[in-house]
Amino acid sequence: MESILELEHVSYAYHSPEGETPALVDLSFHVDQGDFVAVIGPSGCGKSTLLSIIAGLLKPEHGTVRIHGKSLEKNSINIGYMLQKDYLLEWRSIYKNILLGLEIQHALTKETKQYANELLHLYGLSQFKNSKPSELSGGMRQRAALIRTLVLNPDFLLLDEPFSALDYQTRLNVGDDIGQIIKKEKKTALLVTHDLSEAISLANKIIILTKRPARINKVLCLSFDPQNDTPLHRRNTPEFKTYFNTLWEALNKND
């Protein structure tokens, strides 16, 4: 299977007048086409730094990041980045918020507008297209934020704890919604989360990082019955508890 993302021996450190603070050390892994990979680790271990490097916002001090076999500098891949907050603009309607990225990229056409409307209809927000963000629930806002990302037709999705601001029940429902949307749209995704249950319910592979400076502790590949394989259904399977205990043990050994 083709690898969309490859990291080889990637290291990064933050520098200040007080000295150097290593964040990532010698990370190597790959993400294949169609993968949903979750990255977990102790708080402050460098998970968001890793996403920033993959997105090209930071340059690794050592090592190589390749997408479709090419370095980031030579690549024109369209990466979608979904953050912890939805960052919907209150003075724009939901529809106008969804079109914002297309406007910035000068890609607003009859076809892309039609695609935006199709996504709104498909994922249950068409009746709220003229509403302001404050008129929607937290879960609906996150769905709108994902549609805003998907309408750009990204090759690869980076998800930086996108459900962390939601209450537990909403988080479960939205995680299920967004997991199924990503699967239905056949997107490749890399999720950073501190929630072990969330990682197991969404991913097919989990990368466990050590405490800062982050190294790879363990890579866990998940396998569930493909029939009715949804995030909520996974939580009720016998495998779920086994995977949870494996992750918990790996993280505690890390301490």
Give a description of the structure.
This protein has nine helices and ten strands. The protein starts with a strand and ends with a helix. By secondary structure, it is of the alpha/beta class. β1 and β2 form a beta hairpin. 35% of the residues lie in helices and 26% in strands. A six-stranded mixed sheet has the order 6-7-8-3-9-10, sandwiched between helices.
Q: What tags apply to this protein structure?
A:
255 residues, alpha/beta, six-stranded mixed β-sheet, four-stranded antiparallel β-sheet, 9 helices, 10 strands
- The strands making up the biggest β-sheet line up spatially as 6-7-8-3-9-10
* SS content category: alpha/beta
Strand content: 25-35%
| C-alpha-based Rg, rounded | 19 Å
Give me the strand/helix succession: EEEHEEEHHHHEHEHEEHH
Question: Biggest sheet, open or closed, and with what strands and sense?
Answer: 6 strands, mixed
Low-confidence stretches: none
User: Please, how many helices?
Assistant: 9
Number of E strands: 10
Terminal CA distance: 35 Å
Q: Which overall shape is indicated by the principal axes computed on the Cα atoms?
A: globular
Summarize the structure.
This protein is α/β, with parallel strands linked by helices and 255 residues long. It is built from nine helices and ten strands. Strands 6-7-8-3-9-10 form a six-stranded mixed beta sheet, sandwiched between helices. A four-stranded antiparallel beta sheet has the order 2-1-4-5, covered by helices on one side.
